Amino acid sequence: MSHALLDIEDLKTHFPVRSGWFFKRQSGVVKAVDGVNLQVNEGEVLGLVGESGCGKSTLARTIVRLVLPTSGQIRFAGLALQDLSRTALRAIRPRIQMVFQDPYASLNPRRTVFDTLAEPMLAHRLVPRNAVAREVGALMEQVGLAKRSMRKYPHEFSGGQRQRIAVARALALQPQLILADEPVSALDVSVQAQILNLLKSLREQRGLTMLLISHDLSIVRHMSHRIAVMYLGRIVEIGPADEVFSRPLHPYTRALVAAAPVPDPDIERARRRIILKGDPPSPLNPPDGCPFHPRCPFATAECAQRVPALEEHRPRQQAACIRLPEIADTPI
């Protein structure tokens, strides 16, 4: 983890909202990702957490160029992805792969598992055609599936097995970076553990770098070296996983940690409850100043006027809050 494999600087992804006849008039902008600065170091797992709708999935899709950014920089291994031509981007794509949230939707129901896994290998000419069947079989065994099942269709597998196929598809091109977007949220709890352990073992075997997106704090704590917390299109805190959970800085991170149950009744009874007021603002009409200030228990009048920068307040731990370090040691 010596240097950044993925470096994101002031990234914005805005979607125009159109209305009127034939939707010709732009009536607003949805600021799904609004000025994200983030680094993923080589060989690490960075967990990205936040409420539904905060922009996590849009950020991942922007990184892999499924969605075009409005502005900002995305650098992968020193290359500015937004400046690459289609030919140059095609050469980079095998090195960045994505595991999508819903295994029922991410696999083509009309294609066998063999076709799904063989296509990227053949498209990028990584494997000779006469060796594809052997490579697909080895890949299936690596993710815990029998290679004799490669001629089956997705509907013949369970949800956990489908997600294993999705993981195998991401690994088919031998990537350096995997973006896992809520990879277990659509699965049963017992199956979730299997997929997470699979991802963990594959990361260790292959030396993968991973951006793990989830709204489940226990998952990212189990898997991640560092954790970034996202709120309304912005990163509000980032730091080592243990530090973020044991000593969170940002008021929003404090609320997330306080909401996660602790499997000890004595500790659970003694913990302070943080009840956030109101609902998350709409990205169509975000508040001025700090995006969290309408719900923050520590907010002042200045918070409504000033957008806080992401700054280091403890070693390797950054947060975007103008009330720090004043409230940094306030007990949760």
Q: Main sheet, how many strands, which sense, barrel? A: 8 strands, mixed
Strand content: 15-25%
What's the average pLDDT?
90
DSSP strand tally = 12
Q: Tally the helices: what do you get?
A: 11
Strand order of the largest sheet: 6-7-8-3-9-10-12-11
- The CATH topology name of the domain at 42-64 and 86-224 reads Rossmann fold
Morphology: globular
CATH first level of the domain at 42-64 and 86-224: which class? Answer: Alpha Beta
The assigned CATH architecture of the domain at 42-64 and 86-224 is 3-Layer(aba) Sandwich
Class by helix and strand content?
Answer: alpha/beta
Radius of gyration (CA) equals 21 Å
Low-confidence stretches: none
Write up this protein.
By secondary structure, the protein is an alpha/beta fold. The protein has a domain at 42-64 and 86-224: P-loop containing nucleotide triphosphate hydrolases (Rossmann fold), CATH 3.40.50. Helix content is 30%, strand content 24%. It has eleven helices and twelve strands. It has helices spanning 56-63, 86-92, 103-106, 113-123, 132-142, 159-171, 189-206, 217-223, 241-246, 251-259, 265-270, and strands spanning 4-19, 25-41, 45-49, 71-76, 79-80, 96-99, 177-181, 209-213, 226-231, 234-240, 311-314, 317-319. The strands form two sheets. The protein has an eight-stranded mixed beta sheet, with helices on both faces. Helix 4 (113-123) crosses helix 5. The two termini are 31 Å apart.
Quick recap:
This protein is α/β, with parallel strands linked by helices. Helices cover 30% and strands 24% of the residues. It has helices at 56-63, 86-92, 103-106, 113-123, 132-142, 159-171, 189-206, 217-223, 241-246, 251-259, 265-270; strands spanning 4-19, 25-41, 45-49, 71-76, 79-80, 96-99, 177-181, 209-213, 226-231, 234-240, 311-314, 317-319.
